[in-house]
Structures are given as structure tokens and as C-alpha cells.
Amino acid sequence: MLSESTLHYRCALDIYFDQSITQEDWNELIRAIRQWLVQRNDVKASDNNLMVSKGQLFYNGLNWVSRSHPNLRISTLRFIGNGTEFQPEYWGVELYHSDSDYAARIWKTSITLRVMDSNKCKFIITTEYGFSSHYMDEPEPPTASVPRIVKTILQQYTVKIGNDKLSSKPIEIATQREAKNWAEHLLNPNRQTPLVFVGHNIVGQGYGYTVDPQQLAMYLQGSANVIFTKSPELQYEFNFFIEQKSFTKYQDTLKCKEGLIRVYLGLAQFPRPQSHRFFNVFDIETFNKRLLNLETVILRGLIRGKLNIQREDILSIQDIQSKIDTQHLKERINNLQEKDTQYKEIAELFDLLSNENIELRNKNVEIGKNVDNAQAEALNYLEQFEAKDGEVRGLRYQIEDTQQRYLAAVSENQSLQTKVQSLAALKTLPTCLAEVLEVISQIHNDKIIITDEARKSAEDYDSLKKIERAWEALWLMATELHTLYSRNEQNIEGIFNSKSSHIAYAKTEGKQTKGNPSLMGLRTAIWDGEEISFNSHLKYGNKSDDLLRIHFHYDRNKQKIVIWHCAGHLDNATTAKNK
How far are the Cα atoms of 326, 336, 338, 352, 356 from residue 348, in angstroms, in the given order? Predict the structure, then answer.
């Protein structure tokens, strides 16, 4: 049905079971594949009664054609081999269906299972597409995608490529020890699974990542593990450990700088640094102009590499049928030989042909090795060319990086000049809360926004005895606290409170206060056209004649802290009861 097919997706996964594979384990795995097929929209829309009613045929051998969609068909096949009647060595399924947008584009998906060991089987899925012979158009190539069954397999089973466990989600490097461990794993010469490292933005582009690690991992399920560091400092540590742990003189060039995404292939097959491609913002913009996204580019590159595909692997039900035919022929000749000695010569001829076939296979393997060597040599020349191209792209990146750092330095210099001018204009120290608030707003106007409500609350409050505590609280808010928010730290409360002795941070109010609409109304206001709850606050003191509460909200769009209240204690569930 497919002519001149184009490979769209392929992955080969080693599935591990906790113990020896049982009949129920085998059935459960095939049941998951069958459920994926039945839940497909095109199968649902068709007459799928055969798929539902003849479940046993799906396990043992099925040829199902939709009554309403002639291009929709599902076939399954098994070969007992070294297995049993209920747990064969080989099993496969094949799905044909039309494209939902272009009826002339026909999709073919093949899934094969092979029992490799007592607790291990190999799952291979291949998706390709072609066009009807009469089709005279050239539609846009389909966007990269991963079959949902791959995500199901990754979530329900222990899945590896070689010795490396695959994850369906991005892996966060959250500690220095983890950075060291992942750097060592990256440099492991036996590592087979590709690693895609997502770097932080370069200085001047704001806190965040060059691409979304979650989205990238979704596209690369079954093909690679996506890793990223929690902070730019940990990315620096990761690169430091790569430099320290490098076994050869060029492995330190495997570092991934800020503003980059880098694809690390297996070092056993690709020892040269040029093989491990990096992408920067310039590359992503170029892909966008070509109506491509980075995820598609990386996925297509990985599936072309035939990751974890061996020459002896079974990729389709046609490969399974070939094994069945060979087995049947051998059995038939053996039976004839037992009945009549005249077939002895035929049996000997078959053995001879079988031996010659084995020799041809061995020669084919040898030819394959020669082809691989030739490809490796060609790859070496290609890498030399790409190295020059990489130097050009690297220079472009360095120019862009330098420009961004320069702009960031100019912005920082202007901010420092503003701070210096504000301090120079300060003839006397602030004597009240309102003055402290005003001075802090002038010095840190790039980090803090003071609302009119905050100014009024400070002007009306005169119970704070130690004005220096207000200065300390507001200064910490503009420096330490702002940094934690801009870096999107998950445990801001714990980190901030571990460093401050007088000033405490509370992320939100208590449960009873939050459950009282009237009390929450005291903390709610319209900011920038949106209703905001100013629950987060810094606090000092508990005595009525010496305390301070600063309620605020972090505006991620402006990357500034908005102060809404700077005065005494707002009523909460406890104080409301005492009134």
C-alpha cells in the first residue's frame, strides 16, 4: 500500500519486568497495544466490532479491514519460535490508515515484540507514510510526533536502551552532586542513550530556558533523555565537572554554555565533539523561518540514527512471516525425509542451501560492517566540514552573547548610577516608615514598585519603634527575595528564612484566614487590570507597638515586586476573634 515511504518515527526499547515474564505479563503488554489501537479516533469512527469481539484473534493472528474506511486495516501475527503457545517468541501488529488532513497520504505503523531474556523483551515501533500513486500534490511534511503507546510503555514499565533507563519527563539536576553524577554519565564511553541538555538563557534575556524542557521531552519520548539544571549556577557546575572528568584532551569541549541546547549522542559510536550538535537562539529562529521547530529537527536526526536497532531485529510482521515460512519449509522437508529415503537428497540440498544462506548472512553482516566503516569515514569528513560550520555558528553565538552581556552591563550600570544618585541626594537618614519606603523605591526602582496604597499605609503608621528594621526588610526584599523569585526557586520560604534572623517571609496566609472572604478582601486589589491577592508578606515583630507587615505580589511580566501594604498587621482569623 505504501510506495516510496518516508520514515516518520522509530524507537527500539528494551522492556524489563521485575521477575520472569509470565503469560499474564505478555497478555497485559499486548492488551495495552490493542487498547491504543481501539481508542484511536479513526478506529473508533469505523466499525470496530471485529476488533472488540475477536480479541483472541488479536493475540494469535488477525486480518481486520474496516467496512467504512478501506484504507484502514489492522493485521497481527505471531511466531512461537523458542517460546510457548501462550507466550511466543515473536509477535507483531501492523496498522494502515489515511491521514486526517490528506486522504491520499497513507500511514503505516508497525509494532513488534520479541522475548530476549527471561525478564526482558524488545519493543520496536516504526511509523512511516507514503502517497497514493495518483496523487499529484506535495503537502507540507507532517510535524514530528510520538505515538501515544510509547508514552504508555514508558510510564508502565521499566524501559532502557542498553543500561540507561529512559524517562518520559525531563530530568532536573537540582544539586551539585547530581550535576557531578550526570557529567560523569555523559562522559561514560558505554552510554548509548542520547542526552539532550537544555541550557539557561544567556545574560540579558531574562531568567528561564532556551526552550521549554517539558515540551522538548514530550517530543523526544523513547529517543532521548532531556536534562536541565535548576539554576544557572548548577549549569556552571555541570560544565566544571565535564572539564574536570574529561578523559581525553577534547572532551572538555562537550560543555554546554548558557543559551544553548546540546544533543549528546552515545560516546561509543560518536567520540568526536563535533558529533554532539548544539543549537542556539539563532538556529531556532532559522528553523522557524523554514516552518520547522527545534523539536522536529532533533527528533528526525535521532530516528535516522537507528538507535538500539540491530541487524537481527524483527521490524515488521513481514519479517515474522519470513521466519514462519522458513520454519514450515524445514519441517516439511524433515517429514518427507522420514517417509521416504528418496527425499534424503532434497533434505541434504535444503541443508546445503541453509548453510549457504547462513554464509550469505555472515557475508551480509561483513558487508554491513564495511558499509558502517565507510559511513564512519564519510562521517569523519562530514564532521570536519561541520566543525568549520560549527565554528561559524559558534562565532555568531559569541557575538550575540557578547551583545547581550554588553546590554545587560549597560542596564546594570544605569541602575547603579541611579542608586548612587539616590544615595548622594540623601542628606539625612530616613526617620519614619514612609521615608524609608520612598528611599528604597528610588534606589531599587528596577526591582520594586510602590503602589499608592502602600505609600498611604506607611504614612498612616507610626507604631514601628525600630525604623532600621523597615530598612532591613525592604532592602532584603529588593535583593535576596527578588533574586529568589526571578530564579523561580521552589522553596523561597525555606531559603529566605534560613538567611534572615529578624525578618521572616510567609508565602501565604493561614487556612482560616484564607477561608474568610471578608478577611481576604483586605488583601485583594486590582493591579494592572487583574485582581490580585497580596497574601505573600514579610513580617517583623509580634507586639502591637513594634511590628511591621509588608504585603506584596511578584509580577512575572515586569519581573518586579509590587508592594501593596507596608504598615501594621492586617486583620486575620486570630485578630478578628479578639476584637
Answer: 16, 12, 13, 6, 12
